[in-house]
Amino acid sequence: MVQDGIDDITRAFDLDVTTAGAIILISGVAALILVLSGTPWRLARNVLTIVHEAGHALAALVVGRRLQGIRLHSDTSGVTVSRGRPHGPGMVLTSVAGYPAPALLGLLFAWLVWAEQLSAVLGVAAVLLLGVLILIRNAYGIFSVLASAAVLAAVAWFAPPGVQAVFVYVMTWFLVLGAVRPLFELQSKRRRGAARDSDIDQLARLTGLPAALWLLVLGVLIGGCAVMGGMLLVDPAVGGPL
C-alpha cells in the first residue's frame, strides 16, 4: 500500500528527504512537459476526456437526468447522452460540469496527497474508471478505458510503494495542469468557426450569456484549481505536514 509519499520515495530509492522533495517537484515538471507536448499529449488527453465525460455523467445523475451512455472517440473528443428537460438549471449544471472535472479531480487528488492518503488516489481512480466503463457505448471508448485501467492496475499491483507514489504525483500534476490546455484548444477551434456545439456554446444558448463569459468562468475555476492543487502538491516538498 502507498503511504506517506515522501517517505515511500525516500525508502524506495534510498534518498534523503530533500532529494525526495525534488522528485516531487520534478514530477510536476514532467507533467507540464507532457501537457505542452505534441503526440504524447494527444495520447494522454484521452485520460482527460474520460474524466470530462465522467463529470457530465455525474452531474446528470445529481440533477436527476437519465443517463443513456458515454462515447469516446479517437480524436480525444467524447459525448455523454442523457435524457430529461432540454433546458433549465439541471441541463446547465450538466453542461458546465465537463471541463472543470479534471481540475476538480486533480484538486481532490492533491488534497489526498497532502493528507498522506496516496492509496486513496489509486482507489478513487479505479472507481471512476469502473463507473465510466459501465456507461461506455462504443468500441474505442471501451479500449480507452481498459487501457487506462491496465496501467493503473499494473502500478497498483506490481510497482513498489515508491514507484506508486511517483505515479500518483505525476497523475495528479497532470490532472491539475492538463485541465487548462483544453480551454485554449477550444477557443482556437471556435476562432476557426469549429466547435459550434461545444459545452460553452450550449451554455450560451441555455442561459443567454455570451460563450466568452462562460469560457472566462471556466478558466477562472480551472486556473484556481491548478493553483491550489499545485500548492498542496508542493507543500510536502518544502516541509509541509508530510
TrEMBL record:
Keywords: Membrane, Transmembrane, Transmembrane helix. It comes from the Bacteria. The keyword Phosphoprotein does not apply. The keyword Repeat does not apply. Pfam families: Peptidase_M50B. The chain crosses the membrane at residues 17-36, 92-112, 118-136, 143-160, 166-184, 212-234. This is M50 family metallopeptidase.
